[in-house]
Amino acid sequence: MSAVEATASRTGFSKRPNLQVEGLAVSRGPATLFRDVAFRVEGGEWLAIRGPNGCGKTTLLRCIAGLTRVDRGDVRWNGQPTRDDPEAFNSELLYAGHLAGIKDDLSAEENLDGALRLRGHATSIEATRSALAEVGLEKRRHLPARRLSAGQRRRIGLARLILDPAACWMLDEPITALDDAGQAMFSRLLRAHIDRGGLAVIATHHDLSPAPGREWRFA
Fold first, then answer.
1. In what order do the strands lie in the sheet containing 168-172?
2. Is 177 helix (H, G, I), strand (E, B) or coil?
3. At the N or C end, where does the chain have fewer CB atoms within 10 A?
4. Which CATH number does the domain housing residue 11 bear?
5. Residue 7 pLDDT > 60, yes or no?
């Protein structure tokens, strides 16, 4: 069984998760980036955040993840405001920004292991190596990340999606720099996550599979 198939075969979540965004507004100085942003995503669904460069997609994801302060509005996880119990939300959140988030001096294996440990999801070396092999990095797992291409660095993130059990994925341009095979693998991972009852909010300029997904677009 491949690592992607193993991800798809995981037991579903104990209850159907849901994420609700209510009236979010953010400004920078005199400029309003966005206001009155509202949507709801439930387990088994994913939402594409669309809009032109600079419209605020990354800031919106960071606000939902609790990394950027909002002027007003609420984010609710399973009905509870995330500001009241951020740890409960963070324990079920896998956030990946538009940069790969890779440390150049560490190997692919060390980067993946470190990311999982920071999330409290340490795994076996066998599972780590299996995931890296699945994304095409088996022979490069010991190389310093600085020697990997941009697409190979992105594939470390794909391996993280295989191993991290988070219910909520929040991803910023996740297929940037990936080749066709890498994009297809991401689509399979997303489908497996949705099929087992997870949810995802993804900022992207691309048409992603599995279709159709719902869409929220900046005006």
1. 93-96, 168-172, 199-203, 46-50, 214-217
2. coil
3. C
4. 3.40.50.300
5. no
72-115 pLDDT per residue, tens:
999 999 999 999 999 999 999 999 998 888 999 999 999 999 99
Per-residue CA distances from 97 to 41, 102, 133, 160, 170 (Å): 19, 11, 23, 13, 8
If phi over 0 gives left and psi between -120 and 50 gives alpha, with beta otherwise, what is residue 136? left
- Contact status, residue 155 vs residue 179, Cβ threshold 8 Å: no
Cα 173 to chain centroid, rounded: 9
Residue type, 154: R
Q: Number of folded domains in the chain?
A: 1
Q: Choose among 201, 195, 194, 149: nearest CA to 176.
A: 149
Instruction: Decide: 180 and 140 in contact? Cβ < 8 Å.
Output: no
